[in-house]
Amino acid sequence: MSEWDSGDSGDHGYDGGTDYGHVEAGADHESLDQLHQVHAADNNYDSNFGVYEQDSASAESTSFDQGHHVSFTDPSGAQYEESDFTSYDHNEANADHVFAAEGSEQSSVSEYDQLDALQQRLDSTFASSTQLQTDGGSAALGVASN
């Protein structure tokens, strides 16, 4: 802007008419691009196996007896006696025990994906003008914007 004095000094060659003009125009262009991506995965595995007891037991017994018996009486009664015997016993017991095995197995897989996109465009234009005319004291100011 300029400053001016509208005094009555006629020495300077001032004729009393003033023109002033100002014009300004412009444009703004802005943009925003944003991308956000997430990927997540989870894997789980669990196993549980067991083999339990195996037992074996046996018992055995054997009994063997053998005997001989003789009896004799004196000459007047003349008695004679004889015995032979054999006794045999055999006992056997077996036990086998097997307890089964068990097992379990588990597996799980999960995945997660996410995609966020943001895009923004901002366009703006503007114009402004200022005009000052002085012809005998009239002035006009104007501003325009878009």
Q: How are the secondary structure elements laid out?
A:
Blueprint: E1 17-51, E2 54-72, E3 80-98, E4 101-135
Antiparallel strand pairs: 1-4, 2-3
Strand content: over 45%
Strand order of the largest sheet: 1-4
Total of helices: 0
Q: Specify the overall morphology.
A: rod-shaped
What profile does the largest beta sheet have? 2 strands, antiparallel
Order of helices and strands: EEEE
DSSP E strands, number: 4
Q: What are the segments in which pLDDT stays under 50 over at least 5 consecutive residues? A: 4-12
Q: What is the radius of gyration?
A: 63 Å
Mean pLDDT: 80
Helix vs. strand class: mainly beta
Helix content: under 10%
Quote the distance from N terminus to C terminus. Answer: 23 Å
Describe the structure.
The strands form two sheets. The protein has a two-stranded antiparallel ribbon with strand order 1-4. Strands 2-3 form a two-stranded antiparallel ribbon. The chain is 0% helix and 74% strand. The chain is mainly β. It is rod-shaped, with a radius of gyration of 63 Å.
Based on the model shown, name its key terms.
two-stranded antiparallel ribbon, 146 residues, mainly beta
Question: In a nutshell, what does this entry contain?
Answer:
The chain is built from no helices and 4 strands. It is mostly beta strands.
